[in-house]
Amino acid sequence: MLNFNYYVRTDLRFGEGQIRCLEELVDKYAFGDKKNVLLVYGGGSIKKNGIYESVIDNLKGKNVKEVSGVLPNPRISKIREGVNIAKEMKADVIVAIGGGSVIDSAKMIAAGYYYDNDPWDMVLDAKKIKEVLPIVAILTIAATGSEMNKNAVVTNEETGEKLGTSSKEFIPRAAICDPTYLYSLPASQTAAGTADIMSHTFEQYFRKNESAYLSNRIAEGVLKTCIHYLPIALSNPTDYEARANLMWASTVALNSLISCGMSGAWSCHPIEHELSAFYDVTHGVGLAIITPRWMRYVLNEETVDKFVEYAKNVFGITGDDKMSVANAGIDATEKFFLDCKIPMTLREIGIDDSKLREMAEACVAHNNLSSAFVPLDVNDIENILKDCL
Ligand code: NZQ
Ligand code: ZN
Asked: Cβ(172) to ligand 1 under 6 A?
């Protein structure tokens, strides 16, 4: 039966030049006297491509302070630093300029502003997230959907953990998505980001809910968009149509829309988060490596129909033998990632077999995968990781 709650609140401004709305959005959504703006950004790409300058130009008259140097797989230490700055300046709003790492850090800083103890507590226990400063996200990479969702994923460099937390209060009040901001992305980040979009879609599509017909068809549309436009964006990084469709796909893939009517644990993300925690790998690369191996591992007589639906509706593969069609769909997925020059084995990214069991154990300690599309235990996860070598 199709029964669900769907909560959205992000004022989304999509298209070239939408940065002109920044001041309006800050004035609309900031708390207090709307003067004190905390900028959060990463390692400097926004200074090279001119985005930083246009943000500053659109915040004239505001009291702006900054937290910069957020790393991919963002660290809790940077979030602690950001909370201190936000408290000192009495921030009214946070403007996050970047991708998932920056926006997730902004979410944690925004909650940390109202939290008196260590922000890591809110990663371990999402119930501790109460009040949150308003966030305006300016997206610069199409990948996580963080610009319109309730998640934050954080690395604790002291404990070696990478964990997600979540709150409706985290959902940005506004997001500016200008596809031209993606023009400066390196090919590797473009491809990894798209693999992440596709993985979010797979995690919600490979579920056992036959009544969510519409959600499934939207998911297939997102996948087809990625498969069509990623090669175009890679060969012509300034193709507006390709960048725009990938950017919109990233938001749609993880703003709750395609999970309407779906339930159950995700499979590849929990495994990838351990790869990132142990080896600091690029999230989308880890997912591209794991996904086809996970697909082959869970393909069986019970799951074959879903894989046939995928192969047929996304790749147009047909045939009489269900298993062959399903396998052809998985092969096409792997070939797509390979053609887009994503490293497709763990060894290629410097990971050997020495910590596979440890990662599998950490994965089951941090997640309950018994409600996944196919339930996975520690041995299953170790086997999938072995297949990735
Ligand atoms: O730091 P700078 O210099 O800005 O460079 C970044 C960074 O090195 C670069 N970049 C971003 N926009 C650019 C650009 N370079 C040139 N031009 C641009 N326009 O890209 C690199 C990666 O940035 P990052 O923010 O890490 O990428 P992404 O958006 O893929 O975020 C990944 C993080 O989000 C988490 C991941 O686990 C990972 O920590 N996730 C967050 C989710 C969420 N909030 O819902 C869900 C996801 O499944 C995921 O777990
Ligand atoms: Zn992801």
From this structure: no
The identity of residue 231, as a single letter, is P
Per-residue pLDDT tens over the stretch 93-106: 999 999 999 999 99
Whole-angstrom distance, CA of residue 218 vs CA of residue 253: 9
Whether residue 232 contacts residue 239, with contact meaning beta carbons closer than 8 Å, is answered with: yes
Q: Amino acid letter at 316?
A: G
* Cβ–ligand 1 contact at 44 (below 6 Å): yes
DSSP state letters, 138-155: EE-SSSS-GGGSSEEEEE
Sheet of strand 36-41, all strands in order from the earlier edge strand to the far edge? 11-14, 174-177, 135-139, 93-98, 36-41, 63-67
Q: What is the mean pLDDT of the chain?
A: 97
Distance from C-alpha of 89 to C-alpha of 141, rounded to nearest angstrom: 28
Residue type, 168: K
Partners of 330 in beta bridges? none
Please give the distance, rounded to the nearest whole angstrom, from the Cα atom of residue 98 to the centre of ligand 1.
7
What is the band of 359 on the pLDDT scale with cuts at 50, 70, 90? very high
Look at residue 125 and tell me whether its pLDDT is greater than 90.
Answer: yes
Residue 37 tokens read as 């703006």
> 249 in ligand 1 pocket by Cβ < 6 Å?
no
CA 8 from chain centre, in angstroms, equals 17
The sign of the CA dihedral 337, 341, 347, 351 is negative
